[in-house]
Amino acid sequence: MGDVRTRTGRRRRAVPWAVVGLWLAALVLLGPLAGKFADIQQNRAVDYLPDSADSTQVARIQDQLPGGESTDLVLVYHRDGGLTDADRRTAAEQIAEVRGAHELTSEPRGVPSEDGSTLMYPVSSTQPGQDEQARDAFVDGVRDVAEGGGGLSVEVGGPGALNTDMNKVFGTLDATLLLATLGVVTVLLVLIYRSPFLWLVPLAVAGVAAATAMAAGYGLHELFDITVTGQSGGVMTVLVLGAGTDYALLLIARYREELRRHERPYDAMRTALRGCGPAVLASSGTVAAGLLCLLAADLNSSSGMGPVGMVGVLAALIAMTTLLPAVLVLLGRRVFWPLVPAFGSEPQARRSLFAAMGSSATRRPATVLVGGAVLLGALALGTLNLSGSLKQEDSFTERPESITAMQTLAREYPERSSRPVTVMAPEDRADEVLDRARTTDGVAEAVPGRSGAGWTEIAVFTTAPPETPAEARTIEALRAGLDPRGAYVGGPSAQQIDLAESEARDRKVIVPLVLAAVFVILVGLLRSLVAPLLLLAAVVAVWGAALGIGGLVFEPVFGFAGTDPGLWLLSFVFLVALGVDYGIFLMHRMREESVKGAEPEAAALTALRTTGGVIASAGVVLAATFAVLTTLPMVGLVELGFVIAVGVLLDTFLVRTYLVTTASVLLRRRVWWPGRLSRAPEPTVPSKDQHPVPANAP
Hints:
Order of helices and strands: HHHEHEEHEHHHHHHHHHEHEEHEHHHHHH
Helix content: 55-70%
Radius of gyration: 30 Å
Strand order of the largest sheet: 2-3-1-4
Structural class: alpha+beta
Number of helices: 22
Shape: elongated
Strand content: 5-15%
């Protein structure tokens, strides 16, 4: 017996140290890969598009032309009241300096505005090629030369400048987002745990999980050529820290309770993992399955976000169920100081807020359910106020130089677009395509450009400003008229059209897939058909209401001029997958109480009382981490972060607390149909008297 105890004691000491050692070794190996994660991010609009899109084909053919991909800029010289002769000389001298410092594809030609207040010089170079750093250096070099003063404004715009400005935003996104999210999580953990030490443990483990996820994301890109964008990288960071902290809250709450029942921390942690492990596994599995459905998306950016987000969730799961327990066991009870859970002690009795909320809801469950459903439906009507697709010029919260140049050009050259539509024509039919393009309604000018690899590049200038309905009609007319001749129509404006069309297609495909995948997992976990349908209906209602609130504030309050095309799909995937998480914790505990013989109302209230506090904390943390996205300078990320944060809070404090609880009370045992629990006789004595549960149990 003594030998057995000795071996058991050694195992208790060795296992945590072994786990920590393995993680340290993994960090040494994965650290260099994590550092490369930012380098693989692709943020051009064409990188988001499917391979089949016309815009993608145009970009690929451009790479094959002499000099490869071109970087196109527009230098805009403007003076209110009209340019002077000195202004024109300054412009000519600066253009000559640019021409002398860089290899340009053609001689820049100045185009004056009708009122003489503006002069624009289109500048194009193939020297940078596809190298983003070289392209950014070229743009910055031109900007260093193009300087105004004395009332003369000089702005450098065009697609190349826009890409550079977006790169600068995304280049600092990962570090900014990571630091901001860590700061928010730190504050919340200190408030939740009221301990000067405990908050450090889950936070440090979350940082390890984030590094692991970045290394895994880099590996996915290298092995499977997964598209990684700045958006998917930012969302992955938020998912790791938000979901990881949620898992940590659930585990630590259960561990604290078990420390009162077990003398040794090792035994308490083992019991805690057995108790909450299945629910955490099901939760992470649901999120991972929902994200993997994005693989069916047509957009490269969305299909890439699926596996990138999945590795983030899995990294959080593995770290929080291995490294976090090992560190907590090694630190012992003292990590909870000053609120140390002593062995054999009872938790401090306190009235549960969620028990009170649940009791108030179950007094008139039908009224509460109908009232809540009406409220969510009314909020969802706000989606009617969501404006049209976001234009590139409106995609920044703080407009960079490329955007102000674009606005100046649109204002001063209303008779023609300053941003060409690019047509790629077979070289042997280039003249025919050129003539056809020039006679298309809405075309102001068509100019042939480079030829090579069997193709000829044609720059088509429309009479309408960029990204307007009139320009979109011209692009569609070009595609309809030139397609029989084997030509492709692309360029920045055409890319935005292709993005919107692909997003619409993806919504029709991905939404049913996500619902089906989550439904199957819920059926397997809850062994019911009704309960999964109830949870899915709840999270879909939350999604609609959160989007509706967005519609009420995006333009009237935030001043956004459009809605990111990807908002509908991405917010749906995240809110359904993450919202079902909390439903899983509630319904799984409700099912446990029902298995013990609890009467339906008692089972619902016990589940709400025992899970409410911890899950409310987890919901606040998750909402806060996604809310960090609203501080970034990209409108699309602000909109996504806002909708998900609002949706998580709605789900945590309204839908799960009131609507799911009251629906379960009204359905009684039918909520478990067709499982055996739906056929079990209901007891006359509530189980909460037979099976008391501590008020602050996890």
